[in-house]
Amino acid sequence: MITQEHVTKHKPDPEAFHLALSKLGVTPEQALIFEDSNAGVLAGQASGCDVVAVRHAFNGKNDLSGALACIDSFEEMLAA
């Protein structure tokens, strides 16, 4: 788990995602990020990863259009 205490720059900066990729030993091409905010989508994209946006009742005004896809439930990923 990466929290704000682990980084000096916060979303939309990709520092947290770069740290997570490093700790996991994976490349951006091997990762898929799920985010629920515009800043998170931007950070995920800046890290070089594909990003799937998760819509919910509290983020209706966030611009999630930059994501590869938008889902309302993780169950949608199982159907695909």
UniProtKB/TrEMBL annotation:
<dbReference type="InterPro" id="IPR041492">
    <property type="entry name" value="HAD_2"/>
</dbReference>
<protein>
    <recommendedName>
        <fullName>Beta-phosphoglucomutase</fullName>
    </recommendedName>
</protein>
<dbReference type="InterPro" id="IPR051806">
    <property type="entry name" value="HAD-like_SPP"/>
</dbReference>
<dbReference type="InterPro" id="IPR006439">
    <property type="entry name" value="HAD-SF_hydro_IA"/>
</dbReference>
<dbReference type="GO" id="GO:0050308">
    <property type="term" value="F:sugar-phosphatase activity"/>
</dbReference>
<dbReference type="Pfam" id="PF13419">
    <property type="entry name" value="HAD_2"/>
</dbReference>
<dbReference type="InterPro" id="IPR036412">
    <property type="entry name" value="HAD-like_sf"/>
</dbReference>
<dbReference type="InterPro" id="IPR023214">
    <property type="entry name" value="HAD_sf"/>
</dbReference>
